[in-house]
Amino acid sequence: YNEDLYIVGQTPSLVDTFDDKMYTNYILATNNIPIPKNQLITNEDYNNLSLDLKFPLVLKPIRGRGSQGVTKINNHKDLLGRLHAMFSNNTYGTAVYIEEFLIGKEITITVMPKGNYMVNGKELFYDRPWCLPAVERYNHDNGIAPYNGTVAVMENSKVLSDVELQSNEILEVYEHCVKSAEIIDIKPPIRIDCRSNSTGKYYLFDLNMKPNMTGPSRSHRNNQDSLSLLSARKIGWNYIDLLSNILNQKWNSVSIDN
């Protein structure tokens, strides 16, 4: 990279690597970060599939956008039908995966990179990635959060209460998210979707390297806060504050070398 060129964003190679959800799951699991149990399925073996997981399950593309292609599966017949349709259309390639369906609360956490930030008029330095307040997702469609291109996130999402944000379960999952961001060495924000099991323990199930950063930038888009902006408002940021703080994390080849 030219040292005079500053970048706001991930390197394309990093995005390409961690957009592979099975690879990401492998990296997280090997670093003792809790993820749901999962299993790879290919178009060559799905007719003779031996399942290691119990229903209900969630069927997912290995590379996907939001919840597109994500389906809750309740039985073996349903699974085979969905797999046949996906592989016949070749919509998501020659392999997909399934993971256990967690019955608890779903949250999403925006993780900011380490660096200097302005928060409530004060300049703060974070020497590790850090989490914006967790946002709960609700009003699911058959157990799956609808794609935000269909339903605005402001209609099915809210920041957790102050009491919930200080719970041991949330503080624990924050640490797992920060550790994940450190492993990847993030440059701009990422967003991590998490869901709890029946005992309240959270598992990381989707790591988004390029989260949506929309906001109410025009009069007819007043309900278009992104999940990250919903979270940012909790610490006193408006849309411009969020974007300005993201821009402050710009980097170049010199900062990588150092």
Give a verbal description of the structure.
By secondary structure, the chain is of the alpha+beta class. It has 2 domains: 163 residues, ATP-grasp fold, B domain (D-amino Acid Aminotransferase, Chain A, domain 1, 2-Layer Sandwich), CATH 3.30.470; 64 residues, ATP-grasp fold, A domain (Dna Ligase, domain 1). It has 8 helices and 12 strands. The strands form 3 sheets. Strands 5, 8, 9, 10, 11 and 12 form a 6-stranded antiparallel β-sheet that branches. Strands 1-4-2-3 form a 4-stranded antiparallel β-sheet, with helices on one face. A hairpin with a 2-residue loop joins strand 6 and strand 7. The radius of gyration is 19 Å and the shape is globular.
Q: Could you give a short account of the major beta sheet?
A: 6 strands, antiparallel
Order of helices and strands: HHEEEHEEEEEEEHHEEHHH
* Principal-axis shape: globular
Q: What's the total helix number?
A: 8
Radius of gyration: 19 Å
Spell out the CATH superfamily of the largest domain: ATP-grasp fold, B domain
Q: How is this fold's topology laid out?
A:
Layout: H1 12-18, H2 21-30, E1 38-42, E2 57-61, E3 71-73, H3 76-89, E4 95-100, E5 106-112, E6 115-119, E7 122-126, E8 130-131, E9 135-137, E10 157-159, H4 162-165, H5 168-184, E11 190-196, E12 202-208, H6 227-234, H7 239-247, H8 253-257
